[in-house]
Structures are given as C-alpha cells and as structure tokens.
C-alpha cells in the first residue's frame, strides 16, 4: 500500500471521527447529571441566559455566563474548578465557538451543546429538559425575575428580547407560538411589560394571560416574590440576592437552592428595608459592586452606597459576591459569574511584605504607562504600548482597550470603547479626574499626592490609600490591602 493511500485512509478516519464527535456533542436538553451550564449571553443571544437559568435552578446546577469565546478570567479559573469539584459534564447553551468545546473536552469533561439559529429556537428545544410537558409558560422581554418564578412553577421561560437588546419584539416568535399551540397551552404568565401587539396576538389565539408588573424594578421584584410565596414557597426565607439585570440570571440557581428572594434594582431605588423586614429577611447578597469599588467606572451600574448604608444601619447582614475593588463594572461581573458557581462570598487574600514606599508623582493608572505589562490582584492582565510620543494603548485581557493621551505634564485624556472619556488634570499636588459620557461629566474622583510617599484616592464617600513598591501598587482601605497592580 503506497503512502498516498495510507494518508487518505488516515484522513478519512479523522473526518469520520470528527463528524461522530460533533454529532455526539449536540443535544436538546440540560440533563440532571450536568455539573455546570455555560450560557452565551451577548450579541444575538443577549438575554438567552434568562431562559436558561430556570432549568439550572430546578436541577441545582451552577450557571456561568459567557461570550461566544469564554472570557480569560473564566477560562483560567475553570480548570481548577473542574478538578476540585470533579466536574464530569458541562452543557453549553448557545453558539459557543467550537474551539472552546475542544478545550473543555481536552480536560476530560463530557461536553454537550444546545444550539439554534435564534433564542426562541433554543428555548423551545430546551423544554424537552422537563420529564413531562409543562402545563404553562412564562413570557418576559428579558427579566431575570421571570426565571426566578419559572424555577418554582416548573415552567419554561420564553424570552422575547430581540435585536441584540433587552427590549421585547413586537410579536411572539413563531417558534413560541407553535410550541403553545402544539402543547395546547391556553394560559401564560407575563413577567414585566410586553408590547400590546404581542398581547393582542395571544388574545387572537385564545390564549389568556396573567400579568405580573410593577412601576419599577423593585416593585416588580416584590410582586414576583409575593407570587412565589402564594404558591407555598419562600415563606421561611431569610436571605435575598440583590442586583441588576446583567448578573441576576446566574443568581437564580442560588436563590432556589438557598430558599432566597430576588431583588432586581436597576433603578437604584433602594427603599427595600421595610419589605425585607416584613418578610423576615436577615442576610442580603449583593451581586454588584458599590461605586467606590470601581477604579475606572464606565456605565453607572453599581449598588448605591446610600442603599448599602441604609441596610447596614437597619442591621441586615451584608455579603458581597464581588471583589472589594475592580477595574470597572465589566470586570466586576466576572467575579459574580465565578462566585455564583462557587456559592460563597469572595475573599481577597492579599499579603504584602517588606513595604518600601517609592517616591510618587502620578496616580497608578497614569504611572502604568511607564511599563509594558501589568497584572492586578484579580488576575486581570494588560499590555501597554506607546503609539507615539504622547499616546499609549492599554489592552486588558478581559475588557476593551483604553487609549491614554498626554496633553501636557499636568493633563491626560483617556478614552474607552469609543463612548466614555476621562480627564486627569493636576493642580499643585492634586489630580482631579472627571468621568465624561456624551459631553457630560457624570462622576468625579480626586487623587492627592501626599508628602509621605502615598496617594489618597477619594471616591464618593470612601477614601483609599495607595503606596508603591518598586514593582507594585498597593491599595489600602482602613489599613487593609484590598487591591494590587503588579508592574513589569
């Protein structure tokens, strides 16, 4: 047998084996023996995770949110988690890049993928995860509270969001309508607001509906939790998970496992104290950082310090699912995604030895420009390159790059993602920082260069102190190190 024939045979085996492996990977269900679910939640699949989280809750399966490529923070954390927890099977929901599937398979994990051309196609396929055909369905544009309710009702949650947004489409997708008709479902529950055109569509198909709404996200939370209580659940609850749209889907399995309420407060309204007291809640788990925790904040997605103080003053026990400090709200959400799987509060174990402060002239985020790489205590890395004599690019491992432009020795201009801007302006020994979006300043911080080789960072109503070792910046809160930037 000549070499060409042998090569052709080998290639044929590879193709056949690859096709078999590919075919064996795809499924329509999240099986109860799944150790973890990874849901795509960006682009065309934004809000898919809301429809997935109820299944995870029902089977006590941790849920991780991801892009089509698993973010670096999660991919570097996963191997240790898989080993420590003896993970045997992971189900991925949504159009994940197949290179990620191969990487996970190489960790000797059984990988299953539920995929489809659209969110409705994927979520209707997932209904086969139930042992019996559900008698009802929950409809929502994208609200995680719908998944919270769905986990107790054992009902699929159909997400109507479209156009890469959290906003509902005008009409119910044909995949959903076909499912309702095929399974003779004549009554559905709507969580949140849906367009009148969609509700008219249900009415014309002789499908009745119950609406659970509210004047804001907090009131909607109350009404959903009250509905669950009316079903006989949460009556002995002592805890609540508290956060915004983006991260709360990963909290739904935690709520179900821990018999906890869910409070969605994207409006930052607060004023939940009396409701929580009336329901005998003692412990609150925050799924997002407070504003002072962000070293550079973009979107104003944070838990208000006022809300935190109010709850603390009312003697609630407060827990945080995020690190004490993080670069911005995007990196803070990686803490939540990881910690939701670990099911415990995150701890900052930062140990500093032989602190020998160096002379300081600029804040840490300007001084990093004199280096080529950095790594922070949250394991986020960055490469720094000088574009010209006054322009620098900082490319982070987990978020979009920042461009720094030095206007003069006392002024820097920073841009992020084409929308957000920051100006650093020095007057004597003080740097004033303005956060700007659409030509409007929405936040200010102050960095004071002290005579004792330290910097005082004033954020909102919280003060941090920074010292610099030869190759590291260390951030302290109340004499405790809470964050570091290691320079290379």
Question: What can you tell me about this protein's structure?
Answer:
With 488 residues, the chain is of the alpha/beta class. The chain is 30% helix and 28% strand. The protein contains 15 helices and 24 strands. It has a twelve-stranded antiparallel β-barrel with strand order 13-14-15-16-17-18-19-20-21-22-23-24. A four-stranded parallel sheet has the order 2-1-3-4, with helices on both faces. It has a four-stranded parallel sheet with strand order 6-5-7-8, with helices on both faces. Helix 2 packs parallel to helix 6 (144-153), helix 3 (72-84) packs parallel to helix 14 and helix 6 packs parallel to helix 9 (217-230). The protein is globular and about 75 Å long. The N and C termini lie far apart (57 Å). Mean pLDDT is 88; it is low at 8-21.
Could you state the oligomeric state of the chains shown? Answer: single chain
Specify Rg, calculated over alpha carbons. 25 Å
How far is the N terminus from the C terminus?
A: 57 Å
Compute the number of helices: 15
Report the strand count: 24
The level of helicity is 25-40%
Form type: globular
**Largest sheet, described in full?**
12 strands, antiparallel, barrel
Average of pLDDT: 88
User: Strand arrangement, largest sheet?
Assistant: 13-14-15-16-17-18-19-20-21-22-23-24
Structural class: alpha/beta
Ranges with pLDDT <50 over ≥5 residues? 8-21
Provide the β-strand percentage band: 25-35%
Itemize the secondary structure elements and their pairings.
Elements (H helix, E strand, L loop, with lengths): L2 H23 L10 E5 L7 H11 L4 E4 L5 H13 L4 E5 L4 H8 L4 E5 L4 H8 L10 E4 L3 H10 L3 E3 L14 H9 L4 E5 L4 H9 L3 E5 L4 H14 L8 E5 L1 H4 L3 H6 L3 E4 L8 H6 L4 E4 L18 H9 L3 E4 L8 H14 L21 H4 L5 E4 L4 E6 L4 E6 L5 E7 L2 E6 L3 E8 L2 E8 L2 E10 L5 E5 L2 E8 L2 E6 L2 E8 L1
Parallel strand pairs: 1-2, 1-3, 3-4, 5-6, 5-7, 7-8, 9-10, 9-11, 11-12
Antiparallel strand pairs: 13-14, 13-24, 14-15, 15-16, 16-17, 17-18, 18-19, 19-20, 20-21, 21-22, 22-23, 23-24
Helix pairs in contact: 2-6, 3-14, 6-9
